[in-house]
Amino acid sequence: MLPFVLSAVFGSMLVEASLARRNERTQRARGGIEPRGDVYALMRVAYPGLFLAMILEGAHLGTPPGVLFAAGAALFVAAKLLKWWAIQSLGSAWTFRIIVVPGAPLVTMGPYRYVAHPNYLAVTGEFVAVALMTGARLTGPIALLLFGTLMLRRIAVEKRTLESRSGL
C-alpha cells in the first residue's frame, strides 16, 4: 500500500510542479510580480518533506487498518479533485508562487464562488488523507500543524497582495 501512496503523492506533485513552472513563466511574461514576505521557500521544502515523513512513519509502523486506508484514499481523491477544480478555474494564473498580474481580474468562478482558498483546503485534505493512508499518528498531526501554519502565513500575504493590487 505504501508504494501506492508514495507514487500517488509524488507523482501528482511532479505533474503540479511542471504546470506551476509553466504558469509562472506565463504570469511573469504578462507583467506578474511577486510580493515580499511569501513563505514559498519554506513551503517548497516542507510540502514534500512532510509527506515523506508521514510515509516513512507508515513504513515503520506497518499498514494501517483497511478502513483507515480506504478513508484516506477517498479523501485524497476528493482533495485532488478540489485542487484540480481550483487549478482549472485559475487557468494560467495558478502557480506555486504568489504572482499577481496588475489589472488582472480576481477569479470568482469554480470553487472560488464558495471558498476563498480552495487550493489550501485541498492541501489540508491531502495531509489528512496521507496521514490516514499511512497510519502516521505522530508525523500526521505535526505535518498538518506545521504546514497549516505556513498556509496561514501565505494566505495573509495573498490577501494583502490582492487587496493592494499595486505597490508590490
Verbal overview:
This protein is mainly α. Helix content is 70%, strand content 0%. α2 (40-61) packs antiparallel against α5 (139-164) and α3 (66-90) packs antiparallel against α4. It starts with a helix and ends with a helix. 29% of the residues are buried. The model has no long low-confidence stretch (mean pLDDT 94).
Alpha-carbon Rg, integer: 17 Å
Question: What is the H/E string?
Answer: HHHHH
Distance between the termini: 46 Å
Mean pLDDT: 94
Main sheet properties: none
Q: How much strand content do the residues show?
A: under 5%
SS field, number of helical segments: 5
Helix content: over 70%
Computed structural class: mainly alpha
Low-confidence stretches: none
Which geometry do the CA atoms define?
Answer: elongated
Q: What's the total count of β strands?
A: 0
Short summary:
This protein is an all-alpha fold. Helix content is 70%, strand content 0%.
Q: What are the salient characteristics of this protein?
A:
70% helix; single chain; 5 helices; mainly alpha; 168 residues
Per-chain topology:
Elements: H1 2-29, H2 40-61, H3 66-90, H4 118-134, H5 139-164
Helix pairs in contact: 1-2, 2-4, 2-5, 3-4, 4-5
